[in-house]
Design a protein that fits this description.
The protein has one domain: NAD(P)-binding Rossmann-like Domain (Rossmann fold). 43% of the residues lie in helices and 16% in strands. It is built from eight helices and nine strands. The strands form two sheets. It has a seven-stranded parallel beta sheet with strand order 3-2-1-4-5-6-9, sandwiched between helices. A two-stranded parallel ribbon has the order 7-8. It starts with 8 loop residues before the first strand and ends in an 8-residue tail after the last strand. The model has no long low-confidence stretch (mean pLDDT 97).
Length: 262
């Protein structure tokens, strides 16, 4: 049987964690994937793992020229972009993110640039392509899914007081909703996905903290643990596919119960 993304081209930013898990699932569902992220070794390794269904380019997604080059490489490889999943981002803690009275300017700028500016640049370039594309058999020109976080609307002050990060995810939520309203008449869907604490390279600090792991038993009771990247990828595949062809402007929370527990 055809997969949920059969013959679609999916552009994914990021090459580890949720991005990698979603790329694997997309290929399993019949898609051709283009991977773009800063670290060449990770991009190359993921694309080689995925085989002929994947192409890639290392790019600093905070740089407009690099984003354009990555988009052009995707079009050279596959000819169009049906779905975009913006995953790439950082925690910002190592740059000085933290409670606002302690947050450094470097931490604020680095976090907002990596999480919000990069997403703006990628969305802008891919939207230009989608607007020029003919309608698909499902009557759409494309689908965009942006990575948010429960910390954008459900804070946890004791362990996750990184306020620049929360601000960046709040910005993504606002941008995604506004995009959805504007581009719906153009037959482009825009949604956001908001995970809670997921076991990825970015959450390495939390994975080594016994108090955080103990908290997860009640804060994420559906898992009684951190979530896995595949938990988010499964929902992302649905939102990127034509099965969600009438869904836009939504924020889907994948949190194991975070927002209703603890």
């Amino acid at each position: 049987m055809p997969g949920q993304l059969q013959d679609k081209v999916v552009f994914i930013t990021g090459s580890t964690g949720i991005a990698a898990a979603t790329a694997r699932r997309a290929v399993q569902e019949g898609a051709r994937v283009f991977v773009a992220s800063r670290t060449e070794a990770n991009c190359r390794a993921l694309a080689e793992e995925l085989g002929e269904a994947a192409a890639w380019r290392a790019a600093d997604l905070q740089d407009a020229a690099a984003v354009d080059a990555a988009a052009n490489a995707c079009l050279d490889a596959w000819g169009r972009v049906d779905s975009l999943f913006n995953v790439a981002g950082i925690s910002g803690r190592r740059f000085g993110d933290g409670p606002l009275h302690e947050c450094s300017e470097e931490g604020w700028d680095a976090t907002l640039d990596a999480n919000a500016k990069s997403m703006f640049l990628v969305c802008r370039r891919i939207l230009q392509q989608m607007l020029a594309q003919p309608l698909s058999p499902a009557g759409l020109r494309g689908s965009i899914l942006n990575m948010a976080s429960v910390l954008g609307f459900s804070p946890r002050a004791d362990f996750f007081s990184t306020h620049a990060y929360a601000a960046s995810k709040g910005a993504i939520l606002g941008m995604s909703r506004s995009m959805a309203a504007y581009y719906a008449p153009h037959k482009i869907r825009v949604n956001a996905i908001a995970p809670a604490l997921v076991r990825t390279p970015m959450s390495a600090r939390a994975q080594d903290d016994a108090k955080i792991l103990a908290l997860m038993r009640t804060k994420q009771p559906l898992a009684e643990d951190m979530l896995e990247a595949d938990d988010v990828a499964d929902t992302a595949i649905f939102l990127l596919s034509d099965a969600a062809r009438r869904v836009t402007g939504d924020v889907v929370t994948v949190d194991g119960g975070w927002c209703v527990s603890g």
